[in-house]
Design a protein that fits this description.
Chain A: Keywords: Transferase. Chain A: It is an enzyme of class 2 (transferase). Chain A: InterPro entries: Glutathione-S-Trfase_C-like, Glutathione-S-Trfase_C_sf, Glutathione_S-Trfase, Glutathione_S-Trfase_N, GST_C, GST_Phi_C, Thioredoxin-like_sf. Chain A: It catalyses: RX + glutathione = an S-substituted glutathione + a halide anion + H(+). The complex is a heterodimer of chains A (228) and B (216). Chain A is α+β, with helices and mostly antiparallel strands and 228 residues long. Chain A contains eleven helices and four strands, in the order αβαβαββαααααααα. The longest helix of chain A has 31 residues. Chain B is of the alpha+beta class and 216 residues long. Chain B has two domains: 80 residues, Glutaredoxin (3-Layer(aba) Sandwich), CATH 3.40.30.10; 116 residues, Glutathione S-transferase Yfyf (Class Pi), Chain A, domain 2 (Up-down Bundle). Chain B is 55% helix and 8% strand. Chain B has a four-stranded mixed sheet, covered by helices on one side. The longest helix of chain B has 31 residues. Chain B is globular and about 45 Å long. Chain B starts with a strand and ends in a 7-residue tail after the last helix. The relative contact order of chain B is 0.13. Classes of the chains: A alpha+beta (228), B alpha+beta (216). Chains A and B meet through strand 4, helix 4 and helix 5 of A and strand 4, helix 3, helix 5 and helix 6 of B.
Chain lengths: 228, 216
């Protein structure tokens, strides 16, 4: 939080991210902003007070979810769309995370972005929810659901292991948004009892160690204290 | 040498890819994958799509899967001859296309998908549709469609006053859904109804959905 106050004192006009930085979806956006070296401000949304369902926030995100994102007149929601926007906007001053200038490379980035969105996210978000989030609100972890998802995740990670034995990163031998979008839920997953699913697969393990030690990722995960 | 799509005309995800090819006027070959013989889980197809799903896509040496990724590739490749459905040249317009693509993927699809499966897929295996699942997801879908109604009262299409992949990506599941008694949730929302009528009557949409028989 100290860096946001410093920026305010400096009077820097960056973009605004509305949402708690501990939320995976907000962290997804913050990670890209950090990777691109962009100025931004995090505006907390008080979930306990139901702020996410108040008219002011619904005007930013009609689904009453986080994050919402503001760049001047442009209001966006859906973290994966915001992430693409940030990566595109700052492309000339930061890394090329989308490769839109190359038909084959951008196709591989998009493919692994969809694998994260359609295959990885439903499984890993359920495990993280059951193991870490539901207990905070007094819920009892659903063992059957966890076990079923752990089995699915194992099969999925076999695929990742195979891919990462051929390429350094998911889309190819270059770091991309496809790798970065995996970060938030993976960060929390590694704090569950099932982290061995990553650790027992040498290429997945190496990929995760590389990803999680990136300076931009370290800065983002510093705001995600529940993680191990 | 055109491109190849491995899949089935009835499959919603295969249709997503065919719609893009038709919109772009691109040449392609559809290679049928026979689910009844388990062809989708055979080594030849797993080599194209390791999830054993359809579609898979081949353009020379490039093999892709995940219909939403294939869609982007096709629209990028054929943009100069087929039209711009991604707007990647404009920061603001592409942001809106991406936003509504994510809404389709993260909000719309999870609500309408289970209804589609209960009504169109489960009966093929001798199962009776689970009305509780349908009802729960209809309620979710109505809340999503309220957001669409508000949006489409301001813009002609989802991403703005221009047709884009965001609109096109909704066609396969909506095509089937509109053949069910639950079509009323679309028809009772005038802007969503008008938007659907406009999108579904596009020549490319009519051509692809003609091969998607929607009798439940």
């Amino acid at each position: 939080m100290c860096s946001e106050r410093e920026r305010e004192r400096e009077g820097v006009m960056g973009v605004k991210v509305y949402g708690p930085p501990t939320f995976t979806s907000a962290a997804r956006v913050i990670a890209v902003l950090e990777e691109m070296g962009a100025d931004y401000e995090v505006v907390p949304i008080d979930f306990a007070a139901g702020e996410h369902k108040h008219p002011a926030h619904l005007a930013r995100n009609p689904f009453g979810q986080v994050p919402a994102f503001e760049d001047g007149d442009l209001m966006l929601f859906e973290s994966r769309a915001i992430a693409r926007y940030v990566a595109r906007k700052h492309k000339s001053s930061g890394p090329d995370l989308l490769r839109e200038g190359n038909l084959q490379e951008s196709a591989m980035v998009d493919l692994w972005l969809e694998v994260e969105s359609q295959q990885y996210n439903p499984i890993i978000s359920s495990i993280v929810y059951e193991c870490l989030i539901s207990p905070i609100y007094g819920g009892v972890p659903d063992r059957k659901l966890i076990d079923a998802n752990v089995e699915k995740l194992g099969k999925l990670l076999d695929l990742y292991e195979d891919r990462l034995s051929k390429t350094k990163f998911l889309a190819g031998d270059f770091f991309s948004l496809a790798d970065l979008n995996h970060m938030p839920y993976s960060q929390y997953f590694m704090a569950t009892p099932h982290a061995s699913l990553f650790e027992s697969r040498p290429h997945v393990k190496a990929w995760w160690e590389d990803l999680s030690s990136r300076p931009a990722v370290r800065k983002t995960t510093a705001g995600m204290p529940m993680a191990g | 040498m055109g491109v190849k799509v491995y899949g089935a005309t009835m499959s919603t995800c295969t249709a997503r890819v065919l719609l893009c090819l038709e919109e772009m006027g691109a040449e392609y070959e559809l290679v049928p994958i026979d689910f009844s013989t388990g062809e989708h889980k055979q080594p030849a197809h797993l080599a194209r799509n390791p999830f054993g799903q359809v579609p898979a896509f081949e353009d020379g040496a490039l093999i892709l899967y995940e219909s939403r990724a294939i869609a982007r590739y096709i629209l990028r490749k054929y943009k100069s001859s087929g039209g711009d459905l991604l707007k990647e040249g404009s920061l603001e317009e592409s942001a809106m296309v991406d936003l509504w693509l994510e809404v389709e993927s993260q909000q719309f699809n999870p609500a309408i998908g289970p209804i589609f499966y209960q009504i169109f897929i489960f009966p093929r295996f001798g199962n009776v549709p689970d009305q509780a699942v349908i009802d729960t997801n209809l309620e979710k879908l109505c809340k999503v469609l309220d957001v669409y109604e508000a949006r489409l009262s301001k813009t002609k299409y989802l991403a703005g006053d221009f047709f884009s992949l965001a609109d096109l990506s909704h066609v396969p599941l909506l095509h089937y859904f509109m053949a069910t008694p639950h079509a009323s949730v679309v028809n009772s929302r005038p802007h969503v109804k008008a938007w659907w009528e406009g999108v579904s009557s596009r020549p490319a949409c009519k051509k692809v959905t003609a091969a998607m028989p929607a009798s439940a």
